[in-house]
User: Fold Corrinoid adenosyltransferase from Filibacter tadaridae.
Amino acid sequence: MKIYTRTGDKGKTGLIGGRVDKDSLRVEAYGTMDELNSFVGKAMIELDAKTFADILADLEAIQHELFDGGNDLANVMKERHYKLTDEPIEVLEQRIDTLMEEAPPLERFILPGGSPGAASLHIARTIARRAERQTVTLMKAEDDVPATVQRYLNRLSDYFFVAARIVNARLQVKDIEYVRSAKVFRTEDTKKKKDN
Assistant:
């Protein structure tokens, strides 16, 4: 099997059910999801299997889900069966809640970084945000874009933020707060004080 086909040499690429310019909004969106998937893979090789077994399991599932979402964005057939469902969004929410119970208290914005794995997860977070923005742009331009992909990407960026903090916490690497940040996150203590 040959990897190159020469079919894209004139700036067009194949979708599921059609062809478009390689710089189309649809290709930009699912191409960014592919970029994101690569950074998830990078983060995975930077995490120790013993310390981060739960996060590695999450990330492997996420890689499959990103393929599903990219497939859905690339599908322009008249009759479509979308692969990405709401279930992975619910799982992400559960995992975020679980990891937040482990996370150190947070009041201010933090700088991306810390350990290599956490830094890669922060990169994944920002790429997920870009993929979401591109998907929203696509949704405005075309009326046949599955909204599940946008919701998934929105929740996914939140997951990466929390996972990056947990990676640093388990490695005992302290998050660095942005020095000019106001207190933007409410801890349980500040919530109790405000409620009283």
